[in-house]
């Protein structure tokens, strides 16, 4: 068979595609599901899942109120325990379950940075009320990645 008698690649691929479309067609929703999967692929790194672990504000029998929140992106979890202080501000105690280089507490344009201990513990004292977010840089197998919690309000 000479080169002139052989079908070109485009025609060959068209015949193969036709064969597979007839024998094993793609699901009708495949394109939409793939677009959604690609579009949401990076959401885990932008938003962590917020889980309210306990909210004992009405049941607390102490001088201060407390709130415990857990954030997770499926790989890294952060536990925050927020207590009100006598001066009307807050103390945020936290624990992270992976090695973290730094933890940043963000409130608007203000940022405060600390480094967690070897056990993953960190704390921020004298935190004012307002919309708050915690961002940490986690290290795993030589890679660094950032986890940011959704904003939560300290009142």
Commentary on this structure:
- This protein has 155 residues and is an alpha+beta fold.
- Helix content is 19%, strand content 45%.
- It contains three helices and ten strands, in the order αααββββββββββ.
- Strands 1-2-3-4-7 form a five-stranded antiparallel sheet, with no helix packed on it. Strands 5, 6, 8, 9 and 10 form a five-stranded antiparallel sheet that branches.
- The longest helix has 15 residues.
- It is elongated and about 85 Å long.
- About 14% of the residues have low confidence.
Fold topology:
Layout: H1 9-23, H2 30-40, H3 43-46, E1 49-54, E2 66-72, E3 77-84, E4 90-96, E5 99-107, E6 110-114, E7 121-127, E8 130-140, E9 143-148, E10 152-154
Antiparallel strand pairs: 1-2, 2-3, 3-4, 4-7, 5-6, 5-8, 8-9, 8-10
* Strand and helix order: HHHEEEEEEEEEE
Number of strands: 10
- Overall pLDDT metric: 79
Spatial strand arrangement across the major sheet? 1-2-3-4-7
* Uncertain spans: 44-64
Form type: elongated
Please give the radius of gyration in angstroms: 26 Å
How much helicity do the residues have? 10-25%
Structure class: alpha+beta
Q: Quick one: biggest sheet?
A: 5 strands, antiparallel
Distance between the termini: 82 Å
Number of H/I helices: 3
Q: Beta-sheet strand percentage? A: 35-45%
